[in-house]
């Protein structure tokens, strides 16, 4: 944007430049391409890809949001092509990072598995989320 002769610069100046592509994790299903992401009754994103993650023990995928926003750390729902609806969480990418580094919305469980907890982004770890995500008792550690 520093170039004065940039074609289309006027249309870009002042636009929200937050990313539209974020990660989605779903403990109860594997969302695939074309699945819709809902915030209440409103479709806010569409899945561009999805797969089962053995490392995380849940379904993951890329969600392309229709508008920029503070989506990371939010609990939303995803409707699969078979019309079933599942709770999901939006996370910053990448899904897995180097040791001791976690994107926004992720904490590390004592059992060693990465687990998402929407409450934990506010600084209050939730052991029940750890139990559900790790398939065993544990506590979050930072």
Description:
The protein has 142 residues and is mainly beta. The chain has a single domain, classed as Elongation Factor Tu (Ef-tu), domain 3, CATH 2.40.30. It is 8% helix and 36% strand. It contains two helices and nine strands. It has helices spanning 9-12, 127-134, and strands spanning 21-26, 36-39, 42-53, 58-65, 75-79, 85-91, 106-109, 114-116, 140-141. The chain has a six-stranded antiparallel barrel. The longest helix has 8 residues, at 127-134. The radius of gyration is 17 Å and the shape is elongated. 24% of the residues are buried.
Write out key terms for the chains shown.
142 residues; mainly beta; Elongation Factor Tu (Ef-tu), domain 3; six-stranded antiparallel β-barrel; three-stranded antiparallel beta sheet; 2 helices; 8% helix; elongated
Number of strands: 9
Kindly report the average pLDDT value.
76
Helix-strand pattern: HEEEEEEEEHE
Strand content: 35-45%
Q: Supply Rg.
A: 17 Å
Q: How many distinct domains?
A: 1
Distance between the termini: 38 Å
How would the blueprint of this fold be written?
Layout: H1 9-12, E1 21-26, E2 36-39, E3 42-53, E4 58-65, E5 75-79, E6 85-91, E7 106-109, E8 114-116, H2 127-134, E9 140-141
Antiparallel strand pairs: 1-4, 1-6, 2-3, 2-5, 3-4, 5-6, 7-8, 7-9
Short description:
The protein is mainly beta. It is built from 2 helices and 9 strands, in the order αββββββββαβ. The protein has a single domain (21-141), classed as Aminomethyltransferase beta-barrel domains (Elongation Factor Tu (Ef-tu), domain 3, Beta Barrel), CATH 2.40.30.110.
